[in-house]
Design goal:
387 residues, alpha/beta, 5-stranded parallel beta sheet, 10 helices, globular, binds flavin-adenine dinucleotide, binds uridine-5'-diphosphate
Length: 387
């Protein structure tokens, strides 16, 4: 083993915690800081004092993956409980099944079509003859036709992104399946679950290693300039690291209005509101994320979720990634590549929409890259994955 290195990791979310763990297991010393007073980043969960319900403090998080290595890793750090995510959508005051499946189609058109009939019918609705749709709207029109697009996607997407779907990339809609069966599982991955004691306990376990020191309520910008670290892994926003010198990368932020209601309130974990004249996007009822605690609560915690443009000081949640943002991102990437001693990682550090499983898989790669670079006596790169 070479001389252990001293590494500073900014951010105690999944990315920072997993990089720290892997480097610590390789014999290096990791100091993990986070400006928040808790670990787990946006996946943080905490029991609500009044009701006892486990709340997903920064919005609903369901763990789903096809990556066996990631699934094994997370199961080593928590007890993953079986959970199957189902979402309902309120359209014009009626409740439908989401993502669009045979039940949704039959409900929406008041029909009783078979899978094959529905497939032929929906193909007949397709309005866009572009072979390879690039915008959200083209993708939707090709995928489900105008009626379903207008009812389920246009209003919700306008509220979620603050932009006409014509201006958004097709990739956002491609996250959702279209099924001609009654399968209403929101996710299509082989492994799915939620940690029995919440995500924060899982991240605590990842960080529980003798070579890891965690310092909460500590902001990177307030640290001493040269604190003697051999390398920094930065999982905060790329533009923030450079003090926004080249401008602000666009993000959506979320505002959650928390209320306590008599249990049960809406009867499911997530109810989307697709109409544009309803100001919020969805209501989350947190007790349904812990089906193994069913029947335990008299009172229920709900979050009504509003999506807004992130301003200075707001929490950046979703990278917008429009053409202008991508040009600015390129400039930041050049700046970062010309800066030594820091590797950018995670959802904010790479300005990417990453699910938890992808964040963990990428964190494995980042740690392996840093370890290899140290072993070969070279400086780790600014980015490990293609930007
Ligand atoms: P984060 O969790 O954002 O952690 C970064 C940490 O860095 C934060 O704690 C922050 O405080 C800290 N930090 C930043 N800058 C500084 C600084 N300068 N100094 C000190 N600390 C700093 N994924 C799923 O797999 N399933 C889901 O159902 C799901 N739902 C989601 C719902 C919402 C509303 C959102 C926004 C995301 C969802 N995700 C989901 C994605 C998931 O949140 C991310 O994959 C995960 O949080 C990424 O972890 P991270 O460590 O890269 O970033
Ligand atoms: N979407 C929609 N209506 C819905 C659910 C989703 O229009 O009822 C769109 C919306 O633009 C969203 C995208 O589909 O951003 C992808 O859905 P996903 O559940 O992945 O949403 P996100 O993670 O962005 O909240």
């Amino acid at each position: 083993m070479l001389k252990p290195k001293n590494i500073l990791i900014v951010g105690a979310g999944f990315t920072g915690a997993v990089v720290a763990r892997k480097l610590a297991e390789a014999g290096h010393m990791a100091t993990v800081i986070d400006e928040r007073g808790h670990v787990a980043g946006n996946c943080h969960t905490a029991r609500d004092k009044e009701t006892g319900v486990m709340v997903h403090v920064y919005g609903p998080h369901i763990f789903h993956t096809d990556n066996a290595r990631v699934w094994e890793f997370i199961n080593h750090h928590c007890e993953m409980m079986p959970y199957r995510h189902q979402v309902r959508a309120n359209v014009g005051g009626k409740i439908f099944s989401m993502p669009i499946n045979l039940h949704t189609i039959n409900q929406f058109f008041s029909t009783s079509m078979s899978p094959k009939e529905a497939q032929t019918f929906v193909q007949g609705l397709a309005e866009c003859d572009v072979d390879d749709p690039t915008t959200f709207e083209e993708q939707a029109l090709k995928f489900v036709g105008r009626d379903i697009y207008e009812a389920f996607f246009r209003g919700y997407t306008l509220k979620q992104w603050g932009l006409e779907p014509k201006r958004l990339p097709a990739s956002i809609l491609k996250r959702l399946p279209l099924r001609f069966t009654y399968d209403d599982n929101y996710f299509a991955h082989g492994f799915q679950g939620i940690p029995r004691d919440g995500y924060t306990a899982a991240v605590d376990s990842i960080l529980d290693h003798p070579n890891i020191v965690v310092r909460l309520s500590t902001t990177a910008e307030n640290l001493d300039g040269d604190a003697g670290y051999d390398h920094v892994v930065y999982t905060g926003s790329l533009d923030r690291y450079f003090d926004h010198t080249l401008g602000r990368l666009a993000y959506r932020t979320l505002r959650f209005e928390k209320e306590v209601k008599d249990a049960p309130y809406q009867g499911t974990a997530v109810l989307n509101y697709c109409d544009v004249d309803v100001p919020f996007t969805r209501i989350t009822e947190h007790m349904y994320f812990a089906p193994w605690e069913a029947g335990k609560f008299d009172k229920s915690v709900i979050y009504t979720e509003f999506s807004e443009t992130a301003k200075a000081g707001d929490i950046p949640y979703y990278p917008v990634r429009l053409v202008d943002d991508m040009a600015m991102l390129d400039s930041y990437v050049s700046l970062a590549n010309a800066t030594s001693g820091v590797t950018f990682a995670g959802r904010l550090g790479t300005y990417a929409y990453l699910d938890m499983d992808v964040s963990i898989a990428r964190a494995f790669d980042v740690a392996e890259h840093i370890e290899t670079a140290f072993a070969q006596d070279r400086k780790p790169d600014a980015f490990v994955h293609e930007m």
